Amino acid sequence: MKRILAGIAAAGLALSVAACGAEATEDAGGKGGGTIAIITVDPSNPYWKAEVDTAKKAATDLGYDSYTAAHNNDPDEQNTLIETAVNDKVDGILLDPAGADESIAAVQKVVDADIPIVLINAEISQTGLAASQIVSNNAQGATVGAEAWAASMNYKGTYVELFGNPSDNNAQVRSDGYKQVLSQYPDLKKVGQEIANWDRQEGQEKMEALLAKNPDITGVISGNDEMALGAVNALKAKGRLDQVKVLGFDGSQDAVDAVRSGELVATVVQPIVEGTNDAMKQLDSVITSGETGVSEEKQALDCVLVTKDNVDSVENLVISE
């Protein structure tokens, strides 16, 4: 009888401890618990840094541990990071993929391991694998950016384009969006294009090469802010910045400040903070319930044009109401 009573008491104590643990997790704001791997591109870029910082905070608020890693748009490195996360038996993965086609096998590996995965910022060219794919509406953003830039050019002049990483589907979508708008204005003539892989230093170097071939251009369109700011540096060095209109894309704080100072005509804010928060909520929902809670796998969030008229409403990729 004493042994039975002791067993009952021990069971009661275990239930009490378990209940306290559950209550502590709930108080911390989390529904699930466990570990989430946050795999991004390059946190030294302010855009991806905002993505990482937002994801880490959201994971903590939801009651998860998390760790971050970066593949720098290298599919092989991405595969290594995915294999590590799978071997670590993480509870979920938030991935900013390294290429639309190149990332399919990596996502499939996660799915085969029965680990929930949500994609943010860039999509893959296959549906039915990731629980969600949340991206900015890059075509819409490129359209509004190109219209504002064309107006600043008075719809005439010669220009060049800085193109992002070719493996990233966003690079082509933005370039196509620019083309769709600018092709409507026959007096705007594109005379050159260089790939600068989303990088500021590479943007500067490629802009220098473009200027050597086309010294009299009057405009630059860029697939992202870092390349645009590299172009600004090159134009400054040649003393031509006040004669050339430059367009960025992303809405990084450096770019917003450049719009304020007149170095950029405009930038286009991608809602990466909003998108990352949505992604983490949906990942938590899949972990805890098996469902994202939304009806569509692919979700696009509209971008916002930033010019001198509304530049003071933007701070660190967040637009105030």
Automatic annotation (TrEMBL):
Compartments it resides in: Cell envelope
Keyword line: Signal
Periplasmic binding protein domain boundaries: 36-288
Signal peptide positions (record): 1-24
PROSITE patterns: PROKAR_LIPOPROTEIN
GO-annotated molecular function: carbohydrate binding
Pfam family name, one: Peripla_BP_4
GO cellular component: cell envelope
SUPFAM superfamilies (UniProt xref): Periplasmic binding protein-like I
Keyword Signal: yes
Keyword Transferase: no
Entry similarity comment: Belongs to the bacterial solute-binding protein 2 family.
Protein name: D-ribose ABC transporter substrate-binding protein
